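Morning!

This is the sequence you dropped in the shared folder:
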Amino acid sequence: MDSKEVILLKKALERQKKARQQAERILEEKSKELYDASLHLKQTNKVLENLLDQKTAQIDNVFVNIIDPYLIMDLKGKIIKMNSAAEEFLGFSKEENVKLTELIHPDYKEYSKASFKSLYTTGLIKKFRPGIITKNNGLKFIEVNGSLIKDKKGNISGAQGVFRDITAELEMKNLLNTQRQRLDIIVEHSPLGIWLTSKDALIKVNSTMQKMLGYTEEELHSMNPMEITSLESLNASKEYREKLFKGEIDDFSLVKKYLRKDGSSFSAKTTVSAVRNNKGELRYEVALIEDITHEIELEEEKKQLVKDLESSNKGLQEYAHIVSHDLKSPLRSISALTTWMYEDYKDKLDDNGVYNLKMMQDKVESMDKLIDGILKYSTIKSDNLDNSIVDVNEVVQEIKDIIFIPDHVTVKTANKLPIIYADRTKIHQLIQNFLSNAVVHIEREKGLVEVGCEDRGTHWEFSVKDNGVGIPKEYHEKIFKIFQSIGNKERSTGIGLSIVKKIIDLYEGKVWLQSEIGKGTTFFFTLKKQDENTTSN
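The structure's back. Tokens below.
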């Protein structure tokens, strides 16, 4: 080997040595970096492990403290973990190895199978609502929202879910549905027509309303309520509805005419009520329609009857005056003739002839009283009452001074009588008829007639009591009818007590009696107080 080759070889060895030294240096540096990185990874791993432990503890804490029941189950439905809310609700603990699928009520088995199939297919289950049997055999209803659980390799390892008790909610829903069904039945079978609209669009109309109008529900759905309202009722109806829309009123009632499909019409009382939302905006109008056509016709007939009756009464009063005048004229003549005959021929007639003349005079006098009674009866009416302050004590005294009272009879007041507001003449007629009847029907040695009164709040209750012959029970009602009398027909026209009844009716009172044969009779009658300022002594 020559010197040049040796030199070249030495240079090559030196370069190789330098390269090796440089490589060793780089290797040392990289080794240090790897060591530092390894040390850092170890430290980081410890930090991560600590963090993981903390997160796991937090997750477990959250799991335990979830308010709603929460559970985890394996693929066979066995509950492997659940929180206290779930244990309390179900009544089981996780140690009892309960299967959720076994708790589902038999009626919900097929529904549950379909829901779980959807869970395994989509990975989620939403608003699953089965009925379940809890440990105490109570049927509960729950709503479940859940999802599948997968391991690190993506394999399905189980499922988890949160559920809530909806038993009360379903019960309320069922109750509302039941009530709604009952309400629908009531509405459908109501004798009133019922119409529900929203902004003139028909929502509901019952069968009664359909029958009233002659339209089907389908036909009415295409119509506006104004289309079935007669022109004469439109303006009033529009005015009320505008106020309803503006919120000025919440309901109104009016009588309006409706048009039937066949072109006829009927009158109905219509009551409309507003249904508003929380903002006070009108959502619906509910109308109740009552057909009052027949009632209106009856009212018109009643008005006409009253009008005819008033005309008839006026004619009867005029007739009574004419008849009384025409009858009294010949009666006066007959009375005068019998009086003259008695004066001229009483000495020439035998006892039978004198008796007959006196009988004629008595009959004429009875006829005169009968005519006066008819005239009084026909003129008693409410529109000719002249009410004023009347002291009934004074009226009784006046009557005692003018009527015939037999010597064996005493008339007195049982207590102080009131001062009332009434027509003095009518009160005089009323009490005089009672007293006149009483004093002539007492046949015992000492007769007594007592007038009394009690304050009954809205009415005065008067009584006229006697110790006379009494009145048989079968006459207690009859004697207040015109031309009905008992006892001595010669002394009674049969009009007196009918006049009494008519006057009492004018004052919205009642009349009745209590009687015992041989012991006496008490007549009672009431008069409504005519003035709130009426006083009594």
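Headline: Residues 51-64, 482-494 have pLDDT under 50 and may be disordered.

More detail when I'm at my desk.
O.
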